[in-house]
Design a protein that fits this description.
Blueprint lengths: L6 H19 L5 H11 L2 H23 L5 H24 L3 H23 L9 H16 L2 H11 L4 H25 L5 H25 L4 H20 L1
Helix pairs in contact: 1-2, 1-3, 1-9, 2-3, 3-8, 3-9, 4-6, 4-8, 5-7, 5-10, 6-7, 7-8, 7-10
């Protein structure tokens, strides 16, 4: 049942699975690189479902590492907008092609990055007025359509000025919850198949290695370095969506 892939394709998938682990325990937004790798090797819809299952595995390790550090008030306030975004994404996947939309998402991410950095230069505290609805809806939509909600939510948590561990803990609970909500929709839409699930079983050890490596890396980050890396990875994710 495993797809017939070249040795180079397997190496790329293993590396992408390791990046999933690192993204969950150290570098939010890096999973967009895994999105690109999976889409390069597998059919688009199959890649989305297969990657979702690995992201859920990564969520387990993220919660194990940072479950005590979440900002629950921020999560509760985000929930309605995120759910609305997920449902919009489900409707889109049922009806439309995503090639043009990915470019729109990429442009939106770049605008959000510029706006967030501009506000930080002006010493603004917290996300902008209405930002919870904007970021939450866009985050739910992009994660449902392309597993690309990481860059959007990274910008929201960055704007909220969370310390490193609070950032990672809040992100861990956010994506663990959202990805579980997405799972039945992905199965019903035919995104996660038995072949994709078997592929995931082969790749789970790479996620574990990446998660443990990321945990060590996070302990060495200071706040300024962490925020710079988050911004850079978000820009990479946005550019990928544009190409």
């Amino acid at each position: 049942m495993l797809p017939e892939l070249s040795a180079a394709a397997w190496v790329l998938l293993v590396a992408a699975a390791a990046v999933v682990g690192v993204s969950k325990t150290a570098l939010p937004g890096a999973s967009t690189l895994s999105v690109a790798a999976f889409a390069a090797v597998l059919p688009a819809r199959q890649s989305t479902g297969a990657l979702l299952a690995l992201l859920i595995v990564g969520d387990v390790f993220a919660l194990w590492s940072y479950h005590r550090h979440a900002d629950w008030k921020a999560l509760v306030r985000l929930a309605p907008a995120v759910l609305a975004g997920v449902l919009l994404g489900v409707g889109f996947l049922a009806l439309a092609d995503d090639s043009e939309l990915r470019r729109v998402i990429g442009v939106t991410l770049l605008v959000l990055i510029a706006f967030t950095l501009w506000r930080r230069r002006r010493a603004s505290e917290g996300p902008p007025p209405g930002g919870r609805v904007l970021y939450g809806t866009l985050g739910g939509f992009t994660t449902m359509v392309a597993n690309a909600g990481g860059p959007v939510m990274s910008m929201y948590f960055l704007a909220a000025r969370f310390p490193v561990k609070t950032f990672l803990g809040t992100a861990a609970w956010f994506f663990a919850t959202v990805n579980i909500v997405k799972l039945p929709f992905s199965i019903s839409l035919g995104l996660l198949t038995p072949a994709g699930a078997l592929l995931d079983l082969v790749l789970v050890p790479a996620v574990l290695v990446g998660a443990l490596a990321g945990r060590r890396l996070a302990d060495r980050f200071d706040q300024a370095a962490f925020e710079r890396v988050v911004v850079v990875l978000t820009v990479v994710g946005a550019v990928y969506l544009l190409l």
